[in-house]
Amino acid sequence: MSDDDEDAFPEWDGPLKKHLEKVESRKSSNTLKNRRVAMGQWRDYCESEGTTILDASAQNLDDWLDHLNNEGYAGKSILNKFYDLSALYKFLHRRTDDDGVAYIDEDFIDKMKKTNLSWLNTDPEINEHLDARYLEFNEFEQLLEGCNTLREKVLIRFLWETGARAVEASRTRITDFARDDQTVTLRTAKQGEGNYEERDVYYRRKLERLLKEWIDRGGRNRYLGAENSPFLLVTKESPMMSAQRIGEVVHDVAVRAGLNEKVTFFDEDEMKEVELTTADGRPRYEFSTHSLRHSYAVHRTKNGMPIVYLQRLLGHSDIDQTRIYLEFRDDDVEEADRNYAPTV
Fold first, then answer.
1. Which of 254, 190, 244 is nearest to 62 (CA)?
2. What does UniProt give as the signal peptide span (predicted)?
3. Does the first or last residue of the chain, that is N or C, have fewer Cβ atoms within 10 Å of its Cβ?
4. Model confidence over 265-274: pLDDT tens digits?
5. pTM here?
6. Rounded CA gap, 215 and 175, in Å?
7. Are the C-beta atoms of 223 and 215 separated by less than 8 Å?
8. CA triplet 264, 267, 268: central angle to 5 degrees?
């Protein structure tokens, strides 16, 4: 290996770097590129969840697959990333450190291959049921009616008006708000522990009114320990509401509002309706925190917002991720045609 090659992977070290060096020597440049990207995205997600690649669990990976799906990645793309990580963990399980101890005790991905990954099927008949759900305005009002507490109203309105990811909402601090300007700074985890990319987004008067009740008039301080917490969203048990807990709250509100049905499709082989599930067998629901982010993007796109502005507001590093929101439902296309077609 030449001196120039010794630092070919400066962002990696230890066994992870060794794996990439092995891929570089044995696989195509395209395989190396894809492996490196998948590992980088997986590391970022692990850091956002407070873990590492070496310490991650099957549950972490399953949640990441959900995250990729919610971000609009195609099933085939997600599967490719899954198999990139499968090769990585096989390497980590078989290789040992200087003391002869395997880098990981168990290759949990090998077991996941045997579970239900049918929701990543690239068959269009299945994929059409996995399109990200977005809310019409009347449905959003219905969702608000499903809120039982001020905290739920703040959370739902915050996600709707800012397009924040659940993990971004979780780490939002009170000091991130510029209340006079009605802006808030969101942080997205990037490579390197504690390294975040920031962006400012804007909110409306209705959220500001809720913030006054929540922050200024004592609603937030009803939660034990809230006075000593810097975070916007708190719980009775924790000074920061986790991204997982945010997902649970949104799910519960959507169920109360009558908006959250299980996702099913008709299996022609079995000749019956089949529920789509996660890799560990949990049912998939139509509505999630990402539905609010998706709604944020779709309504701005339908109102004519240029895609480069939307990319910035969503915090997408790749504009192709943003282009997903240019794909509308059939009824949206029909309505647009009726509005724009000539009358002659």
1. 244
2. none
3. C
4. 545 455 555 5
5. 0.61
6. 11
7. no
8. 150
